[in-house]
Amino acid sequence: MTTGTPTIPDEVVATVADAGWITVFSGAGMSADSGVPTFRDAQTGLWENFDPATIASPEAWDADPALVWGWYHWRAHLVRDARPNAGHLALAELSSVGAGDDERALMVVTQNVDDLHERAGTPVLSHLHGSLFAPRCSVCDTPYDGPDADSAVEPEGSKHDPRLTPPTCAVCGGAVRPGIVWFGEHLPADAWERAENAFRGADVVLVVGTSGIVYPAASLPERAAASGVPVIEINPEPSALTEVATHSIRAGAATALPALVDAIRRRG
Ligand SMILES: NC(=O)c1ccc[n+]([C@@H]2O[C@H](COP(=O)([O-])OP(=O)(O)OC[C@H]3O[C@@H](n4cnc5c(N)ncnc54)[C@H](O)[C@@H]3O)[C@@H](O)[C@H]2O)c1
Ligand SMILES: [Zn+2]
Prior knowledge:
Blueprint: H1 10-18, E1 21-26, H2 28-32, H3 52-55, H4 58-63, H5 65-81, H6 86-93, E2 105-110, H7 116-119, E3 126-127, E4 130-137, E5 176-180, H8 189-200, E6 204-208, H9 219-226, E7 231-234, E8 247-249, H10 253-267
Parallel strand pairs: 1-2, 1-6, 2-3, 6-7, 7-8
Antiparallel strand pairs: 4-5
Helix pairs in contact: 1-10, 6-10
The chain binds nicotinamide-adenine-dinucleotide and zinc ion.
Zinc ion binds near residues 139, 140, 169, 171 and 172.
């Protein structure tokens, strides 16, 4: 977590305040201040011996569905207990603050599989990598909303095996899988198309809390930058998108986004 109020450059404040259409591109760092661990931080407790990048794959599902289901069940449980942070809440204000009667369009394209943007009051246009809360049949794709979809799992540190047998589909009896886009899988065509449209129309792009190394998602801000759209990065650390960013604000989402909203409000 980053402390202290970061200074937002006047040029950034003016660019965002004058934008009619803002597109937000968020990653795991957006939710870090809500206590949802990034992959790097997730190897704790029950899961210390498992590599999340390996679990998030079709190969892992084929080899050990109960391990994969147990992992996402645990992630969903963490997210249920988490709350949107001040960054999510500030984004929810961004469409109206200082905009007079002409509300800005605010399009959120996220790589996150949590629902913290939505719970802060910002609809998500595109969940590029799926959702923890949309399991479906691995055979026939029927959405699953049965009782096991989000019930609690053993707390972290339990001696129990983290595996959890996935429920079965009511239609075909197939195993229910998480509604996540795993490494090596194609992005859902509709989510991708909505994301492309969001970037195509943007006056400014805010890149928040992503390392910018997962493709094709990261190509969206890259292409926007190449076509001359200002790209503003919010991330305490440099990332792969820093070089295409017009400005980088080196602070966490939960401090930088409220500071940006306050600066726009003061500008009037
Ligand atoms: N919350 C979630 O839904 C979640 C969590 C972990 C991983 N994932 C998945 O893992 C993949 C990893 O890519 P990624 O780029 O989203 O995450 P990443 O873990 O690769 O990168 C996280 C980035 O956030 C930055 N960061 C850390 N704390 C921050 C803060 N307080 N404010 C702003 N930035 C902060 C880090 O410097 C880093 O650049 C994604 O495809 C995503 O689907 C999702
Ligand atoms: Zn089925």
